[in-house]
């Protein structure tokens, strides 16, 4: 689907989800007042007004397979988007990737300062877990605990944070990484949060184990393909298209499958991952068609 537009049905669903998630974030984020106004402003700068909202969209579509209340799903979607925003704030810092553009606007430490950016990221992460733990998210405390447990696992040392550590270490490595090593790095850094996003709707819906597992596997394959697509965009797109600095991975010596395999082989691998992802949705029938479209769209995006 490279270069193709989004299918009309997917485009409409994505646009609606973006608007709903943005509204939920606006409602749940602290307003800019009091002595902490600068911190609140930085949190809102990082979390509002941009982004694909793919992780939140996965929550909503997964929840839709089990007739979960939209309000509950939106709270979880917003929490995951907050945690994602926190990771981007820290990823952009001078000590990490040292980026000055994100989602088409100055990164948080450029718009404010490094100390405020670090605190804004910390506060967004804490708020994400607070929202998941609240009764408004789900009446069943066991469901809330499971959401907290799974997000913590996806975001921690065996997930996103650990993947970021491996990414940093890869820049100074003295020998080339294997395909398996790069795959593990990217699964941890990007894939685990996407996998949880797809699974979260099933947790909310108290789904049977087999269907919960199927959505998690779908998210895992889509997450791996998404990272390859992101690396291809870094190589082939402009900052105007992506809303962030491009051509930075090669300059930093980052370990990516695109660098290791070349663009064509990496794209072929992403296409195989998408095929595998859609097969995991067989048990959901036609009601998972939007998720199938999303998987196909991942490789054709330009931002």
From TrEMBL:
InterPro entries: Isoprenoid_synthase_dom_sf, Polyprenyl_synt, Polyprenyl_synt_CS, Prenyl_diphosphate_synthase. SUPFAM superfamilies: Terpenoid synthases. Its cofactor is Mg(2+). GO terms for cellular component: cytoplasm. It comes from the Bacteria. Keywords: Isoprene biosynthesis, Magnesium, Metal-binding, Transferase. GO terms for molecular function: metal ion binding; prenyltransferase activity. Belongs to the FPP/GGPP synthase family. This is Farnesyl-diphosphate synthase. It comes from Humitalea rosea.
């Amino acid at each position: 689907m490279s270069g193709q537009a989004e299918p009309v049905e997917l485009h409409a669903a994505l646009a609606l989800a973006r608007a709903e998630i943005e509204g939920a974030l606006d409602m749940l984020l602290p307003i800019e007042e009091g002595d902490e106004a600068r911190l609140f402003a930085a949190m809102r700068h990082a979390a509002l007004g941009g982004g694909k909202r793919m992780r939140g969209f996965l929550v909503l579509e997964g929840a839709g397979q089990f007739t979960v209340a939209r309000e509950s799903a939106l709270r979880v979607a917003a929490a995951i988007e907050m945690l994602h925003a926190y990771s981007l704030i820290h990823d952009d810092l001078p000590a990490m990737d040292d980026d000055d553009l994100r989602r088409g606007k100055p990164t948080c430490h450029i718009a404010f300062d490094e100390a405020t950016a670090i605190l804004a990221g910390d506060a967004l992460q804490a708020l994400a877990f607070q929202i998941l733990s609240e009764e408004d998210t789900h009446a069943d405390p066991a469901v809330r605990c499971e959401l907290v447990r799974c997000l913590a696992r996806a975001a921690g040392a065996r997930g996103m944070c650990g993947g970021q550590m491996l990414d940093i270490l890869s820049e100074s490595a003295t020998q080339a990484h294997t395909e398996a090593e790069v795959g593990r790095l990217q699964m941890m850094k990007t894939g685990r949060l996407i996998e949880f996003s797809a699974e979260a709707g099933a947790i909310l819906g108290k789904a049977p184990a087999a269907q919960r597992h199927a959505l998690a596997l779908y998210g895992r394959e889509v997450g791996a393909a998404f990272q390859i697509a992101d690396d291809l965009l870094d190589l082939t797109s402009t900052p105007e298209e992506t809303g962030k600095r491009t051509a930075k991975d090669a300059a930093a010596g980052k370990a990516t499958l695109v660098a290791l395999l070349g663009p064509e082989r990496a794209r072929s691998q992403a296409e195989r991952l998408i095929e595998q992802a859609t097969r995991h949705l067989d048990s959901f029938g036609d009601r998972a068609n939007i998720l199938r479209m999303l998987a196909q769209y991942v490789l054709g995006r330009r931002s």
